[in-house]
Amino acid sequence: MRVLIAPDSYGDTLTAVQAAAAIATGWNRTRPHDQFTIAPQSDGGPGFVTVLAERLGERRRQRVAGPLDDDVDADWVFDPASATAYLGCAEACGLAQLGGPPTPQTALAADSKGVGQLIAAALGAGATRVVVGLGGSASTDGGRGLIDELGGLDVARQRLAGVELVAASDVEYPLLGPWGAARVFGPQKGADAETVVTLEQRLSDWAAELDAAAGRQVSAEPGAGAAGGIGAALLALGGQRESGAAIIAEHTGLADDLAAADVVVTGEGQLDEQSLHGKVVGALAAAARARQIPVLVLAGQVGLDGFTQRSAGITAAYAIADYAGSVRLALVDAANQLMGLASEAAAQLGNSGRTRYL
């Protein structure tokens, strides 16, 4: 059997590369004669730079401002053939850079200055195309820190006037409102109800400046709410939104890998409704469904019922937390637990045909 292993990252627990290795190792224990294609994926969030570094360009490292007070080392990729820089906001202002669990205080204090410093480094290297992977940020500053680092709105727009700027994200939400950056993602970044209100007001004031600079209501456009509103900042600077998952899929040759597969194994930290709206798992399941290829999802936790899974093209979904017996063990021993879960899932497969394995 030809098995395509194409997971996203598992939050801050496992990178997509680490997850793919764990799945392959566990699967091989049970089905050593299967043929593997290893193709870690990303939708623009954590792992975006790591996945691309495996396939193209030069990995570079820049010391930049982290989401709080301390500086951090952020990796990025430069492809000299196309003069394209690939940056990940999670590298500079990601939740993993907080140094501890998110709190209401960090939700208010975290900013995107480091992302602006990465963009400046890319420009200094001669990049004429800058692709910024959005996702996994600890900040909800609407990209104000990023823009301040580039000299303010007017100066930043001038600096990027001759550059193709891409906001790589599959998040469809606007900057403000019930589906905006603060209300949807703020609680994931430590914000309590009072903090969400404060963040929303702060973003509302900033949105007026972004819209005025862009000459249109960029704050209401799909993707503006990505990465705590960094999406809106990039749109205001002349950027265009592209699918982060599609960018990764193109560079990893995912279409060819999918065409050759008998079964797809993917995964992420939390399989829920958001997974079906632009995330790697949802996009991969839809593409596989069109080819009648079964898809197995190995997630940290599963929050979708069976009917919704099947409607999305997911044949079966397994939770690491259920296999491990607790969320805590699933987190602290993630690689080993994912290996075990992959081995168990592989044991449930048969060899009766291309489209019926479970």
From TrEMBL:
InterPro entries in alphabetical order: Glyc_kinase_flavodox-like_fold (IPR018193), Glycerate_kinase (IPR004381), Glycerate_kinase_sf (IPR036129)
Keywords from the UniProt entry: Kinase, Transferase
Superkingdom as given in the UniProt entry: Bacteria
Keyword Phosphoprotein: no
GO biological process terms on file: organic acid phosphorylation
GO molecular function, one term: glycerate kinase activity
Pfam entry (one): Gly_kinase
Similarity section: Belongs to the glycerate kinase type-1 family.
Protein name: Glycerate kinase
Species this chain originates from: Mycobacterium kyorinense
